[in-house]
Specification:
The protein has three helices and 13 strands, in the order ααββββββββαβββββ. With about 300 residues, it is mainly beta. A twelve-stranded antiparallel β-barrel has the order 2-3-4-5-6-7-8-9-10-11-12-13. The two termini are about 40 Å apart. Its EC number is 3.1.1.32, 3.1.1.4.
């Protein structure tokens, strides 16, 4: 039986390699983890100036990501399917993400506020699909301009650390009928306590022309807010990302769970589980559950 038809084999193989590596390599150096102040340079001692590249969201590669219901007939709400026949996609593919940010302006608001620019790119690669010449199924590009202001007060047992908002654009760079894009103003509030960090992010979609909307009702599926809860200890990291449409009539959303465990230095094994709508833009109104296994390089 060929490997590309056995997703469970790929998952087991990847897990075995990671587990073996964890046993072979002694952890000589601790995982580099950062507080909110260090990640966003909130205190004077943490500031490094402008135009220096910093990590934003995790860098990771999941060589094996399996879907229980891969989207072979993408279509927007209220529109006909993009293709006449289902695309012969494999349920197992590779996913990877790169993400970075840099500070453009420092201490512009009452001597404390900063302006950052961030960029995240996520790829879904049908690398095991020889019949279709191993194409990239979906690429999502997400640039954003972030205004951030440090805070310092107690809130529900946590220490509030920052708040602000971002001008966010997300698109897949494709032509009709599978073009997907939207613009948002995303507000954020972050706090931490001991090994926990919590990000709360509600957003408002910037109105688009209804006649050329690539993804109508995307807020009803992907959501209107997210909560990101992160727990770190001894090089291990647990992350739960929840999104919800905040609608009582037709409630949708998703959850994504990430577990990262130390292998050597800053190299870590990475398990990711997703369930719900909108894992990516082409699947914004498509429900599925996915499991991915791979490695991470940079802490959140």
């Amino acid at each position: 039986m060929s490997i590309h038809k056995t997703p469970l084999f790929l998952l087991v193989l990847c897990f075995s390699i990671s587990a073996t590596a964890q046993g072979l390599f002694r952890k000589k150096d601790s995982i580099v983890t950062k507080s909110l102040s260090e990640s966003w340079e909130l205190n004077k001692k943490d500031r490094t100036g402008t135009f220096r590249l910093n990590s934003y969201k995790p860098f990771y590669v999941l060589p094996a990501k399996w879907s229980n219901r891969i989207n072979e007939m993408p279509q927007s709400v209220g529109e006909p399917p993009a293709f006449d026949e289902p695309v012969d996609l494999h349920s197992t593919e590779t996913k990877f993400q790169i993400s970075f940010k840099t500070k453009l302006i420092q201490s512009f608001l009452f001597g404390k506020g900063d302006i950052w620019v961030g960029y995240t790119q996520v790829a879904y690669w049908q690398v095991y699909n020889k019949q279709l010449s191993r194409p990239f199924r979906e690429l999502n590009y997400e640039p954003e301009l972030i205004i951030n202001y440090p805070l310092n007060f107690n809130f529900l047992g946590f220490q509030a650390k920052m708040a602000g908002f971002a001008f966010n654009h997300q698109s897949n760079g494709r032509a009709d009928p599978i073009s997907r894009s939207w613009n948002r103003i995303i507000f954020h509030f972050a706090m931490e306590h001991d090994n926990f960090q919590i990000y709360l992010k509600p957003w408002i979609r910037v109105d688009s022309d209804a006649e050329i909307d690539d993804n109508p009702k995307i807020s009803d599926y992907v959501g209107r807010a997210e909560a990101n809860v992160i727990y770190r200890k001894n090089g291990h990291s647990l992350n739960l990302l929840l999104r919800n449409s905040l609608s009582f009539n037709d409630n949708h959303g998703s959850f994504q769970f990430n577990y990262m465990y130390p292998i050597r230095n800053n190299l870590r094994g990475h398990l990711q589980v997703f369930s719900g709508y909108g894992e990516n833009l082409i699947d914004y109104n498509h429900y599925q559950t996915t499991i991915g296994l791979g490695i991470s390089f940079v802490e959140w």
